[in-house]
Amino acid sequence: MKIAIVGAGWAGLAAAVYAVQDGHEVHIWESARTLGGRARALTVQMPDGRLAVVDNGQHIMIGAYSASLELMRQLGQDPGQLLLRLPLVLRFADGGGIRFPDWPAPLDALAGILAAAGWSLADKIALARLALQWRLNGFDCAADLTVAQLCHAATPRMMCELIEPLCVSALNTPAHAASAQVFLRVQRDAVFGARGGSNLLFPRVDLGTLLPDAAARWLRSRGATVHLGRRIRQLARPAALWSVDGELFDQVILATTAPDAVHLLQASVAGMSNGTAPAMQAWIDTTEALQHAAITTVYAWSQTARLTLPMLALRSGTIDGAVMPAQFVFDRGQLGGPPGLLAFVISDSQGERDALQLQVLAQARRQLGIDLQAVQTVVEKRATLACTPQLRRPPMTITPGLLACGDYVQGPYPSTIEGAVRSALAVIRSPDSAS
Q: Is residue 150 scored above 80 in pLDDT?
């Protein structure tokens, strides 16, 4: 089959790889001139004049991201070399927080809870009871529950130092608004799944090197066509085939962001038949209703800056009248980047870029004791879905021969790299696909 894939982020590239493996002829279009979508590399200038390659947002993976790790291996990438693997650690600069030993699950979680620094016996017992209850319930709950409601028996310290950081990092949605069902699925695979599932995987290279560049080389070497800097304007459906800007295909897969997919379909639906147009419009309506959340990454530098770990959790919110927006900070110098370069991550980001940058610099001064110079602040306004209870996500099949994949399409995972890759595998292996 001849397949068109629109979008060369992680979902689109993964779909292309799986389609080529299944023997299809694949053509990929990407409107940008770089690969990777919302997980891509960019170049910044350091205060001392040097150029450094960073990412459009600081990303992290976990050991439970089985599809992403397997895809990297299929492309000849070695996750053991490209990713720094550490047991789960959510430590603060003041020494508080939790750290798992490198033990089989769930013993690592139990040991981490018992040894949590600064936690009272009541904190530890409450968390152990909560985790046991999740397991007895099969990591499932009512669809309308939020994470805060699910964890109503948690102590304030548990919520502050474990539940909230886990929730906002995995779902990019605060606990009071996040889906408890999705949160439990992630905890089942990560904390209570196979050994190493909860491990943190820190990229030692930029995100372009990690997968997109390798995927493009792999695809081109096997005859796939990759078009960069070309935006698809319209789809049409002459007879049983699909036309992509005039070129005919057996199947089209939209692997763009949700807004871009909607824009393309809106430009195309008027010319469709009575049998196709209603299905496309229904998909458009569902996708337009999605709420997105922003992620901001503030890169800042000091010649002497170095964290005690590659990543530290930060105390966020309004503290003593000061807004402290970042939940995590990463030491890029320990991850293959320039020494002294730190990346502060604000999940579910609210506010303007310049204000957030100033707030983060003040937060670093207060919580880390470091005066930093801003290097670059990246705001991804539609970084992820707002992963709320009973979220209605658009289906994979739009209409026969026209499908969609991406971290926003129907699936069990939140808007993550793993969610995008799993969506790509599902769309290629679906009964509705050409395979």
A: yes
- Closest Cα partner for 413 from 191, 255, 184, 253? 184
Rounded to the nearest 10°, the torsion over CA 13, 16, 18, 21 is -130
Cis before 414? omega within 30: no
206 or 373, greater pLDDT: 373
* Position 435 confidence tier, pLDDT thresholds 50, 70, 90: very low
DSSP states of 121-157 as a string?
HHHHHHHHHHHHHHHHTTT---TT-BHHHHTTTS-HH
Query: Residue 174 phi/psi, 5° resolution?
Result: -65, 155
Task: Convert the pLDDT of each residue in 91-143 to its tens digit.
Answer: 999 888 889 998 888 788 888 888 888 899 999 999 889 988 998 999 999 99
- Find all residues with CB under 8 Å of 356, minimum gap 6, and list them: 296, 298, 325, 346, 349, 377, 379
Distance between CA atoms of residues 310 and 115, nearest Å: 20
Closest CA to 311 of 368, 377, 362: 368
Cα dihedral 389, 386, 210, 403, rounded to 10, equals 80
pTM listed for this prediction: 0.91
How far, in Å, CA of 144 to CA of 210, rounded? 37
SS3 for 386? coil
CB atoms within 10 A of CB 84: 17
Q: CA-CA distance, 152 to 315, in Å (whole number)?
A: 20
Q: What is the pLDDT of residues 280-316, one digit of tens each?
A: 999 999 999 999 989 999 999 999 999 999 999 999 9
Query: Would you tell me how many other CB atoms lie within 10 Å of the CB of residue 273?
Result: 9
Q: Write down the pLDDT at residue 433.
A: 65
**Order of strands, edge to edge, in the sheet holding 247-249?**
235-236, 242-244, 247-249
Euclidean distance between CA atoms 361 and 351, whole angstroms: 15
Instruction: Look at residue 279 and tell me whether its pLDDT is greater than 80.
Output: yes
- Residue holding tokens 């949160």? 183
| Helix then strand then coil, % of the chain, to nearest 5 | 35, 25, 40
- Quote the CA–CA distance of 160 and 23 in Å, as a whole number: 50
Other CB atoms closer than 10 Å to residue 400's CB: what's the count? 14
Q: Nearest CA to 72 among 220, 213, 223, 186?
A: 213
Amino acid at 199: N
Distance separating alpha carbons of residues 19 and 249, to the nearest angstrom: 14
Q: What is the pLDDT of residues 54-101, one digit of tens each?
A: 888 888 899 889 999 999 999 999 999 999 999 989 899 988 888 999
